[in-house]
Amino acid sequence: MPITLSKGTCKGLLTGKALSAPLVQIVQMTKFEEDGRPTQWLLEVSDGFASLPVMLSVGLNGLVESKKLRLRTIMEIKEHVCREYWGFRVVIIKAIAATGQFNRVIGHAKPLDVSCGTDEAELHVLAVLSSKPLRAVTVHMDDDAESLESFESDNMDVKDPLLDDLNNSQMGDDSSVEGSIGDVGVLPEREG
After folding, report:
1. What torsion do the CA atoms of 117, 119, 120, 125 make, to the nearest 10 degrees?
2. How many angstroms separate the CA atoms of 185 and 98, rounded?
3. High-pLDDT (> 70) share of the chain, %
4. How confident is the model over 96-119, as a mean pLDDT?
5. Which of 11, 12, 122, 192 is most solvent-facing, going by the fewest CB within 10 Å?
6. Please, is 37 exposed, middle or buried when counting C-beta atoms within 10 Å of its C-beta (0-12, 13-18, 19+)?
7. Bridge partners, 117 (sequence order)
8. Number of other residues whose CB lies within 10 A of the CB of residue 98
9. What ranges do the domains of the chain cover?
10. Do 14 and 115 meet the contact criterion of CB atoms below 8 Å apart?
11. Does domain 3-171 have CATH number 2.40.50.140?
12. What pLDDT is attached to residue 56?
């Protein structure tokens, strides 16, 4: 069964618009490490038309380490929150269902602006970067960065229990880009 990415999914995640079955593709992954703190993953996700940086909840790091989440993975976002930090809107992924791997990046996404329109954001980022050494490693930069390995897609639902108390929302839009993902199982029916 073909998987369909829908135009407006990334914008909906960022603005709080209600979506049904928000599917996105991982197009870049960056690992952030700071002494004494858990590893953080910044994922660039795409709906085929727009892309958006999102933070993966620390409780979901095991999915990256086990290679269930990697470059070109298509995933359904089950729970997320969008918060403002230092003048930027930050989407934090709390729970996902990995749906499969695709052999290329779908569409030609353009990055969305995540700033809240304040100069304060830039000043804060500069202050933080100048005061603390932070190791950032971009693990996957483009669709040629890593050879693909197969993994079983069992439509696992994964949720980070550390973020249960945060609000979540879901989003959607009409336009779509299709891509077939081989032997990926059908997504479970959603209630409501």
Report:
1. 100
2. 11
3. 60
4. 85
5. 192
6. exposed
7. none
8. 23
9. 3-171
10. no
11. yes
12. 95
**Which segments within 7-151 are labelled E, that is strand?**
23-33, 40-46, 50-56, 73-85, 88-101, 110-111, 135-140
Cβ neighbours of 83 (radius 10 Å):
12
Decide: helix, strand or coil at residue 127: helix
- Per the structure block, which two tokens stand in for 176? 């779509």
Considering the chain, what is the average pLDDT of its residues? Answer: 73
| Per-residue confidence (pLDDT) for residue 38, from 0 to 100 | 92
Q: Tokens 């973020």, residue?
A: 163
Higher-pLDDT residue of 151, 43: 43
Please give the torsion angle defined by the CA atoms of residues 184, 12, 96 and 147, in that order, rounded to the nearest 10 degrees: 60
Beta bridge partners of 3: 179
Look at the chain and count its residues: 192
CA atoms of 107 and 153, how far apart (whole Å) = 22
Residues with Cβ within 8 Å of residue 9, at least 6 apart in sequence: 19, 22, 23, 24, 47, 171, 172, 173
| Non-local CB neighbours of 41 within 8 Å, separated by 6+ positions | 29, 30, 31, 32, 55, 56, 60, 61, 64
CA–CA separation, 55 vs 61, rounded Å?
Answer: 11
Whether pTM exceeds 0.85: no
For residue 172, pLDDT beyond 70: no
What pLDDT, on a 0 to 100 scale, did the predictor assign at position 174?
Answer: 39
